[in-house]
Amino acid sequence: MGLPFFEIHSLRFKLIASMIAITLFIGAISLMIGVNLLYRSVVNEAGARVGQDLNVARVIYDRQIECVRLALELSASTPSLADALSSGNKPEAARALNAVALKLNPDILGISDSRGRIIYRREAEIQGDALNTAPNPLVVKALESKATVAGSLVMDNQELALENPELAHFAPIRVRKNPEDAEALPHEMTKALMVGAAAPVFSGDRLAGVIYGGFLLNKDTQIVDKIGETVFKNEKYKGRSVGTATIFYQNLRVATSVKDTEGNRAIGTFASEEVNSRVLGKGEKWTDRAKVLDEWYITAYEPLTDIMGRRVGMLYVGVLEAKYNDIRTKAISVFVKIILASAAIAIILGWLITRRIMAPVSHLIQASAEISRGNFTPDIGPISRDDIGQLQRKFLKMTTALKEREESQKAQSEIRLIQSEKQASVGKLAAGVAHEINNPLTAVLTFTHMILRRTDLPGEVRSDLETVASQTERVRKIVKSLLDFSRQSALTPESLDVNGLIQESVKLLENQALIKGVSLSFRGDDDLPLFTLDHNQCQSVLINMIINALDATPSGGKISIQTKRASLENANGVEIKISDTGTGIAPEHMDKLFDPFFTTKEVGKGTGLGLAVSAGIIQRHGGSISVNSTLGEGTAFTIWLPMADNPE
Predict the structure, then answer these.
(1) pTM (2 d.p.)
(2) Which of 13, 120, 163, 568 has the fewest CB atoms inside 10 Å of its own CB, making it the most exposed?
């Protein structure tokens, strides 16, 4: 049975979900970085473009000034105008002025004498008291410098009325909104921002007068529309002009192509305070995104200075940011579609890849179920060449080890069962035989000793009776061993130090080992806890094991005892190992060591019950005894006892 595809706890689902999550995460990061970089690149490019557009706008603005300057210089250089001013021929001067008016068609145009008095304005001769009115600022500057003057200038409404009464009515601008942090302004701005020029007229080396002219910028559309046509090609985006241009007096729009919500030119509105402080306050050129009325633009501003060098206004061009925002939105849309398509591909590829990857895992899961049912040779499918293949090979090794362990445990269980059955059978037999033999044996031994008390027995008879008594005593000991084996007396557990118990046992046998010339040593683990054991019975086991080792070890041999922590079948305990360098045990005798009455000692030197009784004591403590021996090299008995609170 395969792994479920839509089970959220399945590995397949987790792998696919991980691939999708990684795809979406990388996609989201790429989306944020990519769109941000794209937008920055577009905005930077737009900013650079707007900066260039501002330069073009400045050229158009300056060209308007240059046209006035060239036309006036050309008129001033004509001999007829110089002669007319020198001779006071006003009609001739008027004809020269009208010729300029026909070519240039300026908003203001006039001629002054060498003292700065305006003697003739466009189609109007100045006479009487009007000759003493304040001169035009352009005339004053040209007379001072005796050179052509051109640039921007600011005139108040009275000055403008002297030049052209119609302009005085046209120039005032209704202020729509005061700046947030500026001083309160009147509801109507009466200043006029103009561009113009003044050229001195010389008669020989003598200054005969000045000819001047200019254009009003308040409510003008010519320059800003020329900028839109030249720079932005009057491009539209969703019904709105992509590019806009504005001429400011101070921070007030006096000429602009920016439209308000009603579609009218936004004359009389203000630039932001940030722009005002940076451009007019500090005289800097400023390029950045800015809010123009209700729309965001990528803008560029630079200050305008008048003929006196004072900052009197600003020139602005801007590109609608919405166009670039839509480019970013489209880029985001494309990125999102790519990410979603990648996620869909990730799902398909994830399903195919995980299906291929998880096929061996599915086989292993099925094989695990087979093992739990006792089948240690399950089919795990073909071995993969990747890491899963290593897992499969490890799994096969595990199944082999489990099978061997199962067989080993089964064999050991069978051996233990057979041994237990033997011991049970022998125990029952021994108990019956011991009870039946013990009474007659006691009578025989008693009467034998009574006869031996007689003094009239011949020596030969006494010797025979002593033999009978000794052999009867031997039989009595065997019967006692049989009774001990069959009774399996109850344990008396107490908390013991295993190392201390072994040291007690070793001390009891040190002299015997010394007499035989055998080295007896003990090395205990210092980190052993206390164990709950029967002191007397466990000591008898240790003494029996050490005596057996002494019997099997010739003079000059060694017997070593050591303890250490050890685990057996996931249970913690202590391991007591008694090793000797004796004669060893023949392989054919290994399976019979713990059988009752089996012994390799000479007749009369052993009953064959010591190891059987010892094994029973250790088993009742929940432990086990194992043996490892090599014929001619020595034997090692290993006792393992668990850390149990109460032995059975």
Answers:
(1) 0.52
(2) 568
